[in-house]
Amino acid sequence: MANHSSLVSEFVFDCFSGLPNLQVFLFVAVLFMYGMSLAGNTTITAVIKLNPALHTPMYFFLTNLSLLEICYTTAIVPKMLVSLVSENRKISLWGCATQMYFFTLFGITECCLLAAMAYDRYVAICNPLRYSVIMNRGACAQLSVASWSVGVIVGLGQTNYVFSLTYCGPNRINHFFCDIPPLLTLACGDTSMNVIAVYLVAVLFITTPFLLILASYVFILTSILRMPSAEGRRKAFSTCSSHLIVVSLFYGSGIVTYLRPKSSYSTEVDKLLALFYTVVTSMLNPIIYSLRNKEVKEALRRTISSGLCSGKIP
Questions:
Q1: pTM above 0.85, yes or no
Q2: Which residues, other chains included, contact 1 with Cβ-Cβ below 8 Å and sequence gap of 6+?
Q3: Would you call the peptide bond into 170 cis, given omega within 30 degrees of 0 as the criterion?
Q4: Is 158 exposed, middle or buried (0-12, 13-18, 19+ CB in 10 A)?
Q5: How far apart are CA 21 and CA 36, in angstroms?
Q6: Confidence band for 3, pLDDT divided at 50, 70 and 90
């Protein structure tokens, strides 16, 4: 990478330079959402770990998702916050490559993990008698490891491919983090193959998992409608709706960002979409899963009560 990219040693973020009067507001808003995301996802992880009743496949995947959200936002937000209120908006070449790698790793892993969660709900509702056999501890671990492995491989491949290009100037990234599309506009030479690679990754690891999730929920919805018990249908709908909301928020913004025609690109729209799927959805996920999930709310109450009784919570 150093041999090809040594002409530019650092990049400069433009962030939301087109909105100079909103810089302080954006800083406060993003800081609040980041804090909420860290607090919410950490709380969900701790509650699931401390309550044996939640040691089931669904909550195993939810723990993975919460950890992913913490890592995902932390790869982007701290540098973004500094850039919003400081003149120091620089990032080194290697720092930019590192940020892109972790952003891609965590983003692709989340796409695969959401598909694994949909499969878990499909087995639970459509094949309940064999659920404990199919979704055993080994199978859950394999799905989780596979999701993380795909993220690692795609992250390495995409980052290496982008930073094998020559960057000879300008070095201003019209974005608030090192995403692939804005970086490709700064590269010297032909980037057509890189653009194709972005589309292929988006189709394989964003669109394909999304279609698998939709297919799973077609079967799930069919099974739910066949349930004789109204209470059973209500509980099944409640469990699945949380996951569907998260999927819609995450995949919707991701597909629009990476699969819409290049001719319709708008840097400001891209920034707002990126802000949505990197910060907003991460903040909303623990709220969605906790407020719409009776088991999580009861476990949280038990954890808080236990902490108060033992004196661990002042």
A1: yes
A2: 97, 160, 163, 164
A3: yes
A4: buried
A5: 24
A6: very low
